[in-house]
Each structure stands twice: as structure tokens, then as C-alpha cells.
Specification:
One of its GO terms (biological process) is proteolysis. InterPro entries: Lon_proteolytic, Lon_Prtase, PDZ, PDZ_sf, Ribosomal_Su5_D2-typ_SF, Ribsml_uS5_D2-typ_fold_subgr. It is an enzyme of class 3 (hydrolase). This is endopeptidase La. The chain is α+β, with helices and mostly antiparallel strands. The chain folds into two domains: 184 residues, Ribosomal Protein S5, domain 2; 84 residues, PDZ domain (Pdz3 Domain, Roll). The strands form six sheets. It has a six-stranded mixed beta sheet with strand order 6-1-5-16-19-20. Strands 7, 8, 9, 10, 11 and 14 form a six-stranded antiparallel beta sheet that branches. A hairpin with a 2-residue loop joins strand 2 and strand 3. 35% of the residues are buried. The N terminus is likely disordered.
Amino acid sequence: MKRRGWTVLLGAVFVALLTWQSLSVKVAYVALGPGPTVDTLGSVDTKDGEQRIITASPDHSTESTGELQLVTVRVYDEVELARAIFYWLSDEYAVVPRELIYPSDQTDEQIAQQQTEQWTQSQSSAETAALRVLGQPVRVVVTQITPGSAADGVLEAGDVITAVDGSPVTSAQNLAAQIATQPPGTEREITFTRDGKSEKAKATPGDGGQGSAFLGVSLEQQQDNPYDVKINTAGLDIGGPSAGLMFALGIIDRVDPADLTGGLNIAGTGEIDDDGVVGPIGGVAEKVIAAKDNGATVFLTPEANCPAAKGNVPDGLTLVKVGTLDEALSALSALREGKQPPLC
């Protein structure tokens, strides 16, 4: 081979090596893709064998013919440039800066702990919201009074706060929100139950800092659970808050004799608070794909997530818009009756 031929060949090999090396370099991005789905009405494998995810006492437990799937997002970390390009070109994945998923000011252990705490809280709020629908209201009970505060001399430990200025108090969070609607120094009427008797008293919340009104009470939420509802997620490797809505629906369906699913495979997502308000979550574009891949025909979508979900919805999947647990239940009722629920 002539010298020029060797030069071209060696140059081509050198370029190929450089290209391969550059494509193998890990980038500061992660990929988000469709993750596994879990039927909250189904079972999970645990160290003690297969167990139901949501259970109730035998006297109250019912069965349904469909599914209520929670959906997840799988995170692909330590992505090479070549794979990042593949994910970026795919309609099923999103490529985002790693900093958005793994903030540099937190350790991996701290992030994992936060995900676990959110996961646990989502189940607690789901149970609270579901039991309220099932006829078990929340009692907001005073456990301690801050000396010198607005509540000092007005409320006592053991009082159950039922209203502020005539508006019902439905949770500790709701009470804080109602107190915050007026600036510090505004007189408020507090309705409470003491020793089984309803009473009313005036209190003027002070400044709790940064201009927020401070009543001066420590609270505990109490709620009856006559159905002995329990959520068992020991066999699930999932974190974050986004399964709240589907857990709440699963609890109601486990206890309510009516089959909420109507035989349909229904998926959904959304954070939920104690009052049943459904909040937006991340990764909804990938979650709708996961739902469709696992046979769902309906996807319950937090209202704020509708624009992102609509941009990636697969054929055959109906996006139902929900803002509260009550709206989700109304939407499922409409589907069972053959009517069209509110759509994204």
C-alpha cells in the first residue's frame, strides 16, 4: 500500500477511535423513561410471600374486576453521550440535566431518604382522604398551647377545632390555611368542641414570622378507621409522592361495594393531600406511555399536568382531568355509566 493509502487508513482509524471515545463519555444528564406499573388492587411479593397491597377487614373487603394502576418513571443515570443522543431522539424518553434529579447540595442518601419520606406521606394522606370519603371525618385536636399566644387562655389541650369564622376545619393543614387568610392582628372566631359541647371564642393571631398569622397551638389529627384499612408496600421499590391519588382510590374501592373500575384498566398519578386535593407530579409524559404499555385505557391526570400529558399521549389512552379525589370519583362514575368525564 502506498504511503498516502496508509495515511488515509490510519487517519480513519484515529477518527473512529476518537468518535468512539467521545460517544462513550458520560454526560451530566439523566434519561427518564416509562417505569413499571402496579395495580393497587393487586398483590405484591414480600419476604412473607404474596400479599395484598391494600387490605381491609373481612367484613368490609370487596373485590373489583378492573385495575387501578399507579405508574412510575425509571431514571437512567450515568448516561454515555451515545445513549443520551438515542434517548433524546426517542419519543418515549426525556433527557434532563442530572442536577434536576440529583441536586449537588444533597447526597444520594439524603435524596433516597426524601423519596422514602414522600412515599410514606403519600400513603398517609391517601388513607386520610379516602377514609373521609368513606364517612370518617378528621378531628383536629389541640395537644399543646404556646404560652402567651392568641390561643393561650382561649383553647385547651383536648379541644377539637371545628371551624374558623364559620368555615369548617377539615384538617390541620386546612386550619393553618384558614388562619393564614388574614394578616396578624385580625380577630378570628374559633369554634371548638370541649367535653362534647360546642363552643365559640374570639382569638387574635399574632405574627409568627414573615407576616404569617400564628394561633399558637400544636395539633393532632384523629380519624376512625372502622374498616381496618392498611397499605402494604414492603415489596415495592418505589419512592416519591405521586402514587397518592391511586392509593386513595384503591382504598375506597377495597371498601366500597361498588366496583369503581367498572371492569376497566385505569391508570393515574398525582400527589394528594389530607383534604383530597390532587397536585401535579413530574415525568407525566413518560408515565402515560408506561400506562399504555401495561394495558390501561384511561389515565387520571392532575389538571396542571394535562398540557405535558397531551403532548405525549399514545393512541387508545384517554386522559381524564382531575383536581380532587371527589372529581376522580365523579369521573370514574361517568365512565361506568358510559358518559364522558372531563378530559385534558
